[in-house]
Amino acid sequence: MQSIEQISHDEYQMTADWLRSQTKHRPQVAIICGTGLGMLADALQHQESFAYSDIPGFPVSTVQGHAGRLVFGELKGRACVCMQGRFHMYEGYSLFKTTFPVRVFKLLGVKTLIVTNAAGGLADGLKTGDIMIIKDHVNFPGLVGLNPLSGPNDDKFGPRFPPMSGCYDKDLRCLAMDIGKQLGVSGLMHEGVYAMVGGPNFESIAEAKLLHRLGVDAVGMSTAPEVIVATHCGLRVFGLSLITNKVVKSYEDLDSANHDSILEVGQLRSQTVQQLVTELVSRMDINNTTTNTAI
Ligand SMILES: O=P(O)(O)O[C@H]1O[C@H](CO)[C@@H](O)[C@H]1O
Ligand code: HPA
Questions:
Q1: Where is the Nucleoside phosphorylase domain (predicted)?
Q2: Strands (DSSP E) along 181-232, which ranges?
Q3: pLDDT tens, position by position, 55-98
Q4: Centroid of ligand 1 to alpha carbon of 251 (angstroms)
Q5: Which CATH number goes with the domain that contains 146?
């Protein structure tokens, strides 16, 4: 079990107040960059950035491919904040810490959260380099009690028992698919179910077979806790997985997943993911809060 060392409302507020005092940017959209996808922040104009180590209360990134900077700026005139680097449970952080920035974003006035990640493809139709719009997730750590909402509920953020049906906004998913067509990359684009596992090891073959049989399309070691915390506090959520590797599901397959090639695939698709996210931000209805319609 995780220790229930919760973070108080005042601590989130203190970090949000500090950031407000340091920048004039007032973001409406927050973007979390997945492994190898830090270049999403490069598209921001009028940038102002802060090293995580300089932000009171922020954890620091320890994983290669996560620069550890919070970047404020604009995408096509829309105010955004971008996490160049996220926090994972396997780094030793509690789920309260890994999701700390999400509540800070809420207090900063953010309305929409865009989460991105690198993930292994399990579905037969997914190839390395494909983009999977996340339709739903399976939060494996949550199923055994590791949940960022464990402990006393903070009613100022949201209800004790928040629904997760419809947590990936349907309108944004449709818009992203349309944008993919217009960018000429619809051949790369899919919709599917992401599963979070604890990591840091990649899956054994038996685990991969199990996940596949359960209907999981892509697997990674992040995202679900951020989405749960965002949904709890009323943020609209969009998520995408870059399929950076095929998960090995056969004893005859001599391939194996490795972090370096995952970073390389991020590099390869960086421009496409950047264009997709930029267009999504510029075309989304910025005042629309979560629609929470079931899938
Ligand atoms: O989920 P993100 O942060 O994109 O990273 C994914 O890639 C890393 C493994 O290479 C793991 O951290 C996994 O979760
Ligand atoms: O194959 C994978 N498994 C788990 N996490 C991952 N993150 C990128 N690829 C993978």
A1: 29-281
A2: 189-196, 218-220
A3: 999 999 898 888 899 999 999 999 999 999 999 999 999 999 99
A4: 24
A5: 3.40.50.1580
Cα distance between residue 251 and residue 293, in whole Å: 41
Count of domains for the chain: 1
- Report the sign of the C-alpha dihedral through residues 156, 113, 124, 262, in that order: negative
Nearest to 66 by CA among 45, 90, 87, 95: 87
Interface confidence, given as ipTM, is 0.99
Position 293 scores a pLDDT of 43
Q: How far apart are CA 121 and CA 246, in angstroms?
A: 5
Cα→Cα distances 189→88, 135, 240, 246, 273, Å: 26, 12, 10, 16, 11
**Is residue 56 included in any domain, yes or no?**
yes
Ligand found nearest the CA of 218: 2
Ligand 1 atom, smallest distance to 63 CA: 12
Range of the structural domain that residue 161 is part of: 9-283
Q: Please indicate, yes or no, if residue 200 is contained in any of the structural domains.
A: yes
